[in-house]
């Protein structure tokens, strides 16, 4: 895969999957524009134009400095709030929806004219295995990510004629700072690994490779898809 002369925007690039994707695309010579609430030391090591951005707030003019043509957008923000349904306050459902869905909506609305000018652009969103496979205590995040999957298909249909592809990646538990509380002991790591048919948990690089493939010309005939990168968890027993 080669991204020379391609302008790629990554939202949520300071850590986890977003950072791994930025690191990979940097090695593949992309012109990177990265946005997140904080500028991490790892992200600072990359050659990228950084934009301080909180997607739970109105964007204002934050993205006005992007180039006139964008070849790709990756939206990585996510959340993990696992608790019994009856103990999830409505505010948590609203916060998950704001971060995962409405944040993506306003970013993509701000970028769509630039994407259409590329004559072959790609959008990559992120869901979760729990949106398609029922899992206890996942009601809030599964609801929000299911909306992301619906958004993926709707936008893929609407913008296919403009040659803008829209796909979604659905990971299982991945070893990122977001999942630290779920993986903070060897026992938790072992138990999580055993729930996957491939007997390991996901790594950020696993998702970065899929995101980069979907951004690349190698996936030019793929749109409207939700692609699991979950070690077989969603389909195998």
Automatic annotation (TrEMBL):
It holds the Pfam family adh_short_C2. CDD domains: SDR_c. This is SDR family oxidoreductase. Residues 6-176 form the Ketoreductase domain. Belongs to the short-chain dehydrogenases/reductases (SDR) family. The keyword Oxidoreductase applies. InterPro entries: KR_dom, NAD(P)-bd_dom_sf, SDR_DHRS6-like, SDR_fam. Keywords: Oxidoreductase. It comes from the Bacteria.
